[in-house]
Design brief:
The chain has 186 residues and is α+β, with helices and mostly antiparallel strands. It has two helices and ten strands; from the N terminus they run ααββββββββββ. The strands form two sheets. Strands 2, 3, 5, 6, 7, 8 and 9 form a seven-stranded antiparallel β-sheet that branches. A three-stranded mixed β-sheet has the order 4-1-10, with no helix packed on it. A hairpin with a 5-residue loop joins strand 5 and strand 6. It is elongated and about 80 Å long.
């Protein structure tokens, strides 16, 4: 199909011209009245100004909405303290208990630990800032001593040359995503 300008179309009956005219008319309202604005009145100009403001600010609003959350789905941890938080994460993987770590989360920032929708109700967390604060609990999991780790099973930590830490339990209910905030007590 050869391309030619719409201005070369003289006959509406020509199939090529008819499809071009339909395409052109679908791009924008043909008349000022099609926007619901009548006779150039002050209220019409006001409504038109509102439409322009909405169109102008829509991309910024959408970008803010999408970027305003730490995570769109999954499990994230936000460090609200003044020191870097060192975090380990525990969960039941469907067949066995599993722990993972260490994530280093800078002050006033968030890190996603699990991506995608959550598929369990309970998750477990241990965190420390290395000097002042520790977020822990009564559910013991094995952890690597200094290195990054993924460990299956919760028992016999010392026999496997692993350290043991008490994790606190997080009940996510039926939520598909969760943001856990580490807030220092003051």
């Amino acid at each position: 199909m050869s391309h030619f300008p719409l201005s070369d179309c003289r006959l509406l009956a020509d199939p090529k011209c008819a499809s071009l005219r339909r395409w052109r008319s679908s791009l924008a309202p043909a008349r000022f009245d099609d926007l619901g604005l009548r006779n150039g009145t002050a209220s019409a100009r006001g409504r038109f100004a509102k439409v322009i403001r909405i169109v102008r600010w829509a991309p910024l609003f959408l970008a803010t909405l999408l970027a305003g959350t730490p995570a769109s789905a999954g499990f994230s941890v936000c460090n609200q303290g003044a020191q870097t938080a060192i975090v380990a994460f525990g969960r039941f993987s469907g067949s066995d208990w599993e722990s993972q770590g260490w994530w280093h989360i800078a002050p006033k920032s968030c890190t996603e630990l699990v991506s995608g929708p959550l598929n369990a109700r309970y998750y477990y967390l241990y965190a420390t800032d290395g000097s002042f604060e520790t977020w822990d609990g009564s559910k013991n999991f094995c952890v690597g001593i200094f290195e990054t780790f993924t460990i299956e099973g919760r028992g016999h930590c010392a026999a496997r040359n692993l350290d043991r830490r008490g994790f606190f339990e997080i009940d996510t209910g039926t939520q598909l995503n969760w943001v856990q905030r580490l807030t220092p007590p003051h």
